[in-house]
C-alpha cells in the first residue's frame, strides 16, 4: 500500500495504459500479472503488474474489474468474505442465534425456544452467528486436565441435528427461507485442523464447512442494508462500543456470549451494536476451561426486522428455560 502515495501516472505512457485496458478486457486472462505481461509483451513482475494496473486506471480514469473475483490476489480463499443480502420492499425478518456450541451431553433450553419462536414468526432468514460447532478435541488450547472430551463426530452429529431443527422450525411451505452461517472461530477449527494436520486431504469430500452443512451459506460477514453481521471483531468489555464506533454502521457480533446493545450517536445519526448472546448455558460441560470462574454470559438470541431504513431489534433473553416474546411466554 506504500505505493499509493506515489504518483503512478508517470509509470507508463497513455498508449501502454490503453494496451493494458484492452488486453485486460479481452477476458482471456485470469490474473493481473498475465494480463499486464501480455499487454506489455514481456514478463512483468507481480508488484510491477499491480502498479501498472493502478497507473492504467488512473491515466484512463477507469476501473479495471477484478479478473479473479477477489482483487489482485491470485491466492485461493476458503470462504466468501461478505455476502450481501438485498432487502425486499416489505419487512424482512432475521432470527439470529449465535454461539450454540452444540453437544450431545446437554440440551439447550434456548435452542428449543429459538425453534418455537422461529415456528411462530416464520422469519425470512435464519442466521447462525458462528460457533455452532464446538470442536472440543481439535482446539489449539488442548484438553483441560483429564476432562472428558466429546468426540468430534458426536459434536458434528449434534450440530447437524440441531441446525436442521432450526431450519425445519422456520420453514414455511411456499416461502423462501435464507440460511446463513457466519463462520466462528470454533466452526473454523475443523478446516484449520484438516488443512494443517492432513493437507493432502484438500479437495476431498466432507473437508469443508460447506460440505458438512450443505444447506447453509457460509461467509465471514454479511451485510443487510446498513448493518454488518459477523462472528467477532473487537474484544473486551468495550467490544460492542468499539464495533459500533469504528464500523460506522450498525453491527451484530457473537463470540463473547454477551447479550446487549450499545448505541453511538454522531452528526450522522444513531447506529447500534448488538452482541448476540449464546444459546448454550454457562456452567455446563463444554465450558470446564472456565475453571468455574463466573462468566459474564447471557443466554438468548435476537430477532431483527428490517423495513426501509428502519431496524427493529428484539432481544430474547432465556432464563430458567423460559422467555417472554411479544407478550407471550415460551417454555423449553
Ligand atoms: Fe467464538
Describe the structure in brief.
The protein has eight helices and 14 strands. It has 332 residues and is α/β, with parallel strands linked by helices.
Written as H for each helix and E for each strand, in order along the chain, the element string is HHHEEHEHEHHEEEHEEEEEEE
Report the span from N to C terminus: 53 Å
Number of strands: 14
Secondary structure: helix percent: 25-40%
How does this model look, in words?
There is one protein chain. The chain is α/β, with parallel strands linked by helices. It has two domains: 1-75; 82-331, 4-Layer Sandwich (Purple Acid Phosphatase, chain A, domain 2), CATH 3.60.21.10. It contains eight helices and 14 strands. Strand 2 (92-97), helix 4 and strand 3 form a beta-alpha-beta unit. Helix 1 crosses helix 2. Bound molecules: fe (ii) ion.
Write the layout of secondary structure elements.
Blueprint: H1 14-24, H2 32-40, H3 46-60, E1 82-85, E2 92-97, H4 109-121, E3 125-128, H5 152-170, E4 178-182, H6 185-197, H7 209-212, E5 217-219, E6 221-224, E7 227-230, H8 239-247, E8 250-253, E9 259-266, E10 269-276, E11 300-307, E12 310-317, E13 322-325, E14 328-331
Helix pairs in contact: 1-2, 1-3, 2-3, 4-5
This protein binds fe (ii) ion.
Amino acid at each position: 500500500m506504500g505505493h499509493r502515495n506515489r504518483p503512478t501516472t508517470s509509470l507508463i505512457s497513455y498508449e501502454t495504459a490503453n494496451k493494458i485496458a484492452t488486453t485486460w478486457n479481452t477476458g482471456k486472462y485470469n490474473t493481473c500479472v498475465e494480463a499486464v505481461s501480455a499487454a506489455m509483451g514481456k514478463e512483468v513482475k507481480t508488484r510491477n503488474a499491480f502498479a501498472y494496473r493502478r497507473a492504467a486506471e488512473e491515466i484512463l480514469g477507469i476501473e479495471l474489474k477484478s479478473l479473479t473475483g477477489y482483487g489482485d490476489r491470485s491466492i485461493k480463499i476458503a470462504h466468501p468474505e461478505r455476502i450481501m443480502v438485498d432487502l425486499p420492499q416489505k419487512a424482512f425478518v432475521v432470527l439470529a442465534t449465535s454461539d450454540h456450541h452444540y453437544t450431545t451431553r446437554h440440551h439447550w433450553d434456548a435452542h428449543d425456544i429459538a425453534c418455537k419462536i422461529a415456528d411462530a414468526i416464520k422469519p425470512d432468514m435464519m442466521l447462525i452467528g458462528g460457533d455452532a460447532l464446538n470442536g472440543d478435541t481439535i482446539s489449539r488450547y488442548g484438553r483441560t486436565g483429564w476432562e472428558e472430551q466429546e468426540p468430534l463426530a458426536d459434536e458434528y452429529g449434534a450440530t447437524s441435528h440441531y441446525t436442521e431443527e432450526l431450519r425445519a422450525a422456520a420453514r414455511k411451505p411456499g416461502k423462501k427461507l435464507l440460511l446463513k452461517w457466519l463462520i466462528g472461530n470454533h466452526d473454523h477449527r475443523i478446516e484449520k485442523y484438516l488443512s494443517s494436520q492432513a493437507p493432502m486431504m484438500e479437495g476431498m469430500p466432507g473437508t469443508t464447512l460447506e460440505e458438512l452443512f450443505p444447506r447453509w451459506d457460509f461467509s465471514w460477514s454479511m451485510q443487510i442494508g446498513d448493518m454488518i453481521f459477523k462472528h467477532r471483531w473487537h474484544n473486551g468489555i468495550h467490544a460492542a462500543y468499539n464495533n459500533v464506533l469504528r464500523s460506522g454502521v450498525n453491527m451484530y457480533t457473537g463470540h463473547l456470549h454477551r447479550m446487549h446493545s450499545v448505541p453511538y450517536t454522531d452528526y450522522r445519526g444513531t447506529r447500534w451494536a448488538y452482541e448476540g448472546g449464546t444459546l448454550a448455558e454457562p456452567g455446563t460441560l463444554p465450558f470446564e476451561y472456565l475453571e468455574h470462574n463466573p462468566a459474564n454470559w447471557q443466554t438468548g438470541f435476537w430477532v431483527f426486522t428490517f423495513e426501509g431504513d428502519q431496524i427493529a431489534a428484539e432481544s430474547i433473553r432465556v432464563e430458567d428455560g423460559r422467555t417472554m416474546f411479544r407478550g407471550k411466554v415460551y417454555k423449553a
